[in-house]
Amino acid sequence: MATNLRSTTFNSGPSSTEADDEGVQGTCEDASICKRFAVSIGYWDDPYLQHLVRLSKERKAPEINRGYFARVHGISELIKAFLRKTECHCQILNLGAGMDTTFWILKDQDLLPDKYFEVDFPLIVTRKVHSIRSRPHLSKPILELHSEDTLQGDGHMLDSKRYALIGADLRDLATLEEKLKKCNMNTQLPTLLVTECVLVYMTPEQSANLIKWAANSFETAMFISYEQVNMDDRFGQIMIENLRRRQCDLAGVEPCKSLESQRERFLSNGWETASAVNMMELYSRLPRAEVSRIEALEFLDELELLEQLMCHYCLCWATRGGSELGLTEITC
């Protein structure tokens, strides 16, 4: 589900890098529409997504909806655990945020960090900036926390006291860091970084550099990554082929072989602890009342397909420092 990455060419046609980036940006649209549909039929509550994403007329399959529910629930629980451990005296960097609405939901829950940053392709950010500026349901919660009557920024950036939205390429770490610091990123604060289906679209070297940059930039930090896993088997190969047909290449599929390879990518790049769980395992741990509620929303006749799908996605979280805060105790 959600998204990230970018190039310049002097040829009349798009370069392979540009074409790949366009395919990746398309996954942002796909994930956003899937989430919007799941919300519309009651899987979870999100009053803000409707102001950012259109409702598709096409009905999504029940296994897709349940997969998104597990994803949103798992990431949300880890984020809230980090916020509680730090008593919200921290910052969050959502890298490849797409049309994510976590900032607004956390504000409603009185769980906002000191500052919440979102980063994505400039083209995606431009769309989101326009939506925020033109829709009071999105702009008012930001302005309520801001010391001025207007939001700073241009088409590729928006900044305020508690929220920043930045157009940047995650593969260009020097520029990324410069833009974050311009929006008052504080490297001394406990920091949570979140990526959802982002690293897999970068080469293993590029994603390793991003993970290493994060480890080196913050003394106390946690990294949450939602990604594909078990991609070596037949089902995984079909997933890869389907995306390739849509001009979307999984350049970073190598670390997605297993839960162990997902953990190792963090441990070998500066992180002290790393845990990972496939989404079927996470689904089995959900509160039974919630599972009963969502399973009553629509009939699923192919449980095996749900299991196959969820066994090919995972949630991984890594920590560095923060033992006095209890970050290593966080689990889902």
What's the topology here?
Layout (H helix, E strand, L loop, with lengths): L15 H25 L21 H24 L5 E5 L6 H7 L6 E6 L1 H13 L1 H9 L7 E3 L2 E3 L3 E5 L5 H10 L8 E6 L7 H14 L3 E8 L5 H12 L13 H9 L5 E6 H7 L2 H8 L7 H8 L2 E8 L12
Parallel strand pairs: 1-2, 1-6, 2-5, 6-7
Antiparallel strand pairs: 3-4, 4-5, 7-9, 8-9
Helix pairs in contact: 1-2, 2-12, 4-5, 10-12
Detailed description of the structure:
- The protein is 44% helix and 15% strand.
- The protein is an alpha/beta fold.
- The chain has one domain: Vaccinia Virus protein VP39 (Rossmann fold, 3-Layer(aba) Sandwich), CATH 3.40.50.
- It has a 9-stranded mixed beta sheet with strand order 3-4-5-2-1-6-7-9-8, sandwiched between helices.
- β4 (157-159) and β5 (163-167) form a beta hairpin.
- α4 (122-134) crosses α5 (136-144).
TL;DR of this structure?
One of its GO terms (molecular function) is protein C-terminal leucine carboxyl O-methyltransferase activity. The chain contains 12 helices and 9 strands.
What are the main properties of this structure?
332 residues, alpha/beta, Rossmann fold, 12 helices, 44% helix, disordered N terminus, Leucine carboxyl methyltransferase 1, EC 2.1.1.233, S-adenosyl-L-methionine, LCMT1, Ppm1/Ppm2/Tcmp
- H/I helix tally: 12
| Class from secondary-structure proportions | alpha/beta
Total domain units = 1
How many β-strand runs?
A: 9
What is the CATH level 1 assignment?
Alpha Beta
